[in-house]
Amino acid sequence: MTTLKQVLSCLFVLMIYTIFRDSIKMIRNYLNNIDFNNVYLTPYFWRIDKKRAKEGKIFLWPLSKAEKRSNGLMKPISPPTRAEIHASWLPLAKFTFILITANFVIQGSGFIADLVKQMLNFDYKRHSNITMSTEKCIFQPNPPDWAYAAKYILVPLLIMFLLQVIFGYVIKRATLFYIIGNIFRKRNKARIIHLYNKMLFVRINGRNLARARIRFQVQRRILQRQQIREKR
């Protein structure tokens, strides 16, 4: 039993460590890799585009579906991608662990309940020397208070499930845009400008490539007609 408690204690610490590790990893990638998750069309992106349109310069509005699909562009409120769905398995495992832990805590006994109590350093036991009548110690069996359990246990677990598993990608995007973006504002603007310049480069090269293809097709047809005339 003691060994199992130690193993679960290590797993609990490992779960907390992974949360901090992922947070630090996201911040490092955000600061060091300008292309890290830099595929979202934010309001500042379109503000730059409107400014260029007013100045009579080349602008991007509207982006075609092919451009969005080939470059993986999306809105901040777009549905989750395959990578985000695949990444939801780890939060699901964490939620399962918390659910099992909460189940043992509700029962009030068991090695997991003792483990959580030791980690929280909460004084669950109290010794006192009180003399009282045995009649007060005898209680009639009562059914569980399901309303209390639903309000303070099931509802928080349901909210955790929605936030960590189903809407986990929403939290990551909100963290990326509103928390990290507000902390590192200059970096946030630099990332958006980089994405805009990248798409502008793709648009200009795409037009030049399309014109080159048209010229090639025209010249090819001219040569074919000349060959037909020479044969006649």
Automatic annotation (TrEMBL):
Location in or out of the cell: Membrane
InterPro entries assigned to the protein according to its UniProt record, in alphabetical order: CSR-E3_Ligase_Protein (IPR051856), DC_STAMP-like (IPR012858)
Domain Dendritic cell-specific transmembrane protein-like: 102-196
One Pfam family here: DC_STAMP
Keyword Transmembrane helix part of the UniProt annotation: yes
Primary localisation category: membrane
Highest rank taxon of the organism: Eukaryota
Membrane-spanning segments: 92-113, 152-171
Membrane topology annotation: Multi-pass membrane protein
GO cellular component, as recorded: membrane
Keyword tags: Membrane, Transmembrane, Transmembrane helix
This protein's name: Dendritic cell-specific transmembrane protein-like domain-containing protein
Naturally occurring in which organism (per UniProt): Gongylonema pulchrum
